[in-house]
Amino acid sequence: MATITLLGTAPGYPAPHRNHSSFLLDTGEQKILVDAGESCSRTLIELGIEPVELDTIIITHGHSDHTSGLAMLIQSCWIVGRERPLPIFLPKELIQPLTIWLDASYIGPNFIPFKLQFQAWEDSHRVNISGINVRVAPTTHLDSLVKKFGNDRFHPFSLSFDSPSFEFVASGDIGAPEDLLPQLENGTDLLICELAHFPPESLFRFLQKFRIGRLVLTHGSAEVLAKVDSVVAEARAMLPKTEIIFAEDKMKVQLAARKG
User: Fold this and answer.
1) Is residue 93 part of a domain?
2) Is 126 a member of any domain?
3) What pLDDT, in 10s, does the model give residues 52-99?
C-alpha cells in the first residue's frame, strides 16, 4: 500500500522538534520527495531510507523552507555513488539560480557524475511520473512579491496526485483557501494542507463545500502550533465527515486504495 511520510511540518521559520516542509510518497515501486526543507536528508536516514533511493523530487516553490535541504540531498546522492539521472520538477524560475547555487557548493552539473533532469512546471501543468498523474495549479501565495517585483518570477503551485491505486491533493503554500478550488472540484480522499497564511476557520469553512475524506494539517504558524488541540476541535466540529489529523514529523499516512 502506498504511504506518505511527513518529513518536515514546521512553518517558515525554525520550530522545536519540527523540520521544514517535505514529505515522501512511497508507492512501493517509486519514492517521490515533495519539497526539500531542512533537514529532509537526515530524516530520511533516520527512517532507514537513503537519499540515493529517491526516484523523483518535486518542488512547489522557491522559499527556503521548501528548498534548503536540496543541496544536501544531491551531495548525499553523490557521496554514495548515484549514477542514474535525478528528475527534479520545479518552477522554471528556479532552474538557473539553483544550478548556480549547486555549482557554488561544488555539487552542480559540472561536478557530479549523474544528471539533474530539471523539468519546469510551466512547460506542462500535468505530467506522468511512473504511472502517477501529477497536476499543478498556481496559487496566490507569492502575490505580494508579484506586486512589488512583477510576475516574471514568484510562481508557487499546489499539487494533485492521481493513480489507479490512490489519489490525494497537497496544497503547497497558498495565499487563501480558494487557491485549492482547481484541485478540489471533485473532492479528494486526502488533502494535505498548510495552515500558516490564513485563519484556520476560513479553511474549514471553505472545505465544507467539498468531499474531503481525510485532512492532514501541516506547516502551522506559531499561533496555530500554540493551540493545536483547539484547532483540531474546530476542524472536527466544522467538518464532521472528515478525518482530521494534525501532522508531526515522521508521521506516516497510508493512502486508501481507490474503490471500484
Assistant:
1) yes
2) yes
3) 999 999 999 999 999 999 999 999 999 999 999 999 999 999 999 999
Which residues 6+ apart lie within 8 Å of 157 measured at CB?
A: 60, 61, 91, 121, 136, 137, 138, 139, 172
Q: Which among 73, 140, 67, 56 has a CA at the least distance from the CA of 98?
A: 67
Whichever domain contains 114, its CATH number is 3.60.15.10
Does residue 144 lie within any of the structural domains?
Answer: yes
Give the C-alpha separation, 166 to 53, whole Å. Answer: 22
Q: For residues 141 and 147, what is the distance between their CA atoms, to the nearest angstrom?
A: 12
Burial 27-42 (b: 16+ CB within 10 A, else e): beebbbbbbbbbbbbe
Tell me: the pLDDT tens digits for 131-175?
Answer: 999 999 999 999 999 999 988 899 999 999 999 999 999 999 999
Domain that holds residue 137: 3-254
% of the chain exceeding 70 in pLDDT? 99
Domain count within the chain: 1
Assess if residue 87 is contained within a domain.
yes
As a whole number of angstroms, the distance between CA 174 and CA 252 comes to 23
Phi, psi of 47 (to 5 degrees): -90, 0
226: helix, coil or strand?
coil
Cα separation of 16 and 128, whole Å?
37
